[in-house]
Design a protein that fits this description.
It contains 3 helices and no strands. With about 70 residues, the chain is mainly alpha-helical. It has a domain at about 1-45.
Length: about 70
């Protein structure tokens, strides 16, 4: 659907709204660093004390010839 509306004015307007939203959100985060601290605290709380990261691909190397 994004491709279908991409070349039309409605698609361009939507892309501009999305870009402005992302930009203003980034500006808010840079102006108020406590937001990042709060978000990191919430993330750690939700993950729990015993969280260990495990990659979805396991311990194998990622395929570098994925376009073949």
């Amino acid at each position: 659907q994004a491709v279908a509306a991409g070349g039309m004015s409605i698609g361009q307007k939507g892309m501009m709204v999305a870009a402005k939203t992302l930009t203003l959100t980034a500006m808010d985060i840079f102006k108020n660093p406590s937001v990042t601290t709060e978000a990191l605290g919430e993330l750690n709380k939700r993950r729990g004390a015993n969280f260990t990261y495990e990659a979805l691909v396991g311990d194998r190397k990622p395929p570098l010839d994925y376009r073949k």
